[in-house]
From TrEMBL:
The organism of origin for this protein: Fibrocapsa japonica
Name the record gives this protein: Mitotic checkpoint protein
Transcription regulation in keyword set: no
Classification lineage: Eukaryota, Sar, Stramenopiles, Ochrophyta, Raphidophyceae
InterPro entries tied to this protein: WD40/YVTN_repeat-like_dom_sf, WD40_repeat_dom_sf, WD40_rpt
PANTHER family: MRNA EXPORT FACTOR AND BUB3 (PTHR10971)
Length: 307
């Protein structure tokens, strides 16, 4: 994940470390060792970050002095870590079937525990809304201003197979969801029949005889188009509004595990990493590729209207 207003990139890794890079200068600034594999991380502000993983602990790092502290823990691995600028809270989702809300400024940081319908696989924030994707293909939304009221909505994914990733639209009206079946669903928060009639799904990351999981997704901060990355090693960019593919990047040597645009959309961080969908086999070394993004890759193209 990129910093809120810089090209600093925070990356979590299965090698039990969190890494801080200056992606613009291609320099590693710091590394922070942990006790076990780290599954997710995020920035709090330019000087601090959070991470969680298989050791079950939510850690906070100070990038200036290298110090770290533990805010608390889950009863299982922490899969997702997200910071909300709107509420000032950190949200974590775990394989223990819990979403926890944390106030890092409080002496008792854990302020809310919300049971989920299954293991948390993915999580996304949209303004004051938290969207949680769990095992069993459930998608649960919360209003972070009214967490004690429980879920705002709970619905089943419109896709038939396991959810891998959810990311929210820039305009806060809905989200895109990727699954292991090489499909993406475009969904809307508004429960009205008019809004729900606009939802759709499309096939991607597949060949004539092989279907690849969609592992990663990122929305461009300026244009609102979105990139997807799959186990096929391909990154596609889509215009969700006009239902068109805008570009496809050359194939990478193994699958794409994560994607992130920087604050102005000029850089795309691509985590190229085998995700063990075929078990323990020989695979290329994990790498992070920083791609310079041109407008032609990500800008919506005019749609020809037939008269």
């Amino acid at each position: 994940t990129f910093g809120p207003s810089s090209n600093n990139l925070l990356a979590s890794s299965w090698d039990s470390c969190v890494y801080l890079y200056d992606a613009g200068a291609n320099v590693r600034l710091a590394s922070f060792p942990c006790k076990a594999a780290v599954l997710d991380c995020c920035f709090w502000d330019p000087q601090h970050g959070f991470c969680g993983g298989l050791d079950r602990s939510l850690k906070m790092f100070d990038f200036n002095n290298g110090s770290e502290s533990v805010l608390g823990s889950h009863n299982g691995a922490i899969r997702c870590v997200e910071f909300s600028l709107h509420s000032g809270l950190v949200f974590t989702g775990g394989w223990d079937g819990q979403m926890l809300a944390w106030d890092p400024r409080s002496p008792s940081p854990c302020v809310q525990s919300l049971p989920q319908p299954g293991k948390v696989f993915t999580m996304a924030l949209s303004d004051n809304r938290v969207v949680v994707g769990t095992s069993g293909r459930q998608v649960v939304t919360y209003d972070m201003r009214r967490l004690t009221a429980g879920p705002e909505t709970q619905r089943e994914s419109s896709l038939k197979y396991q959810t891998r990733v959810i990311r929210c639209f820039n305009d806060r009206t809905g989200y895109a969801l990727g699954s292991i079946e090489g499909r993406v669903a475009v969904e809307f928060f508004d429960p009205s029949p008019e809004a729900q009639a606009k939802k759709y799904a499309f096939k991607c990351h597949r060949t004539a005889d092989t279907i690849f999981p969609v592992n990663a997704m990122a929305f461009h901060p300026i244009f609102g188009t979105f990139a997807t990355g799959g186990c096929d090693g391909i990154v596609n960019v889509w215009d969700g509004q006009n239902k068109k593919r805008l570009s496809q990047f050359p194939k990478y040597q193994t699958g794409i595990s994560s994607l992130a645009f920087n604050h102005d959309g000029s850089l795309l961080a691509i985590a190229v990493s085998y995700t063990f969908e075929q078990g323990e086999i020989e695979h290329p070394e994990d790498t992070i590729v920083i791609r310079l993004v041109s407008d032609s890759d990500v800008r919506q193209k005019p749609v020809n209207v037939r008269k």
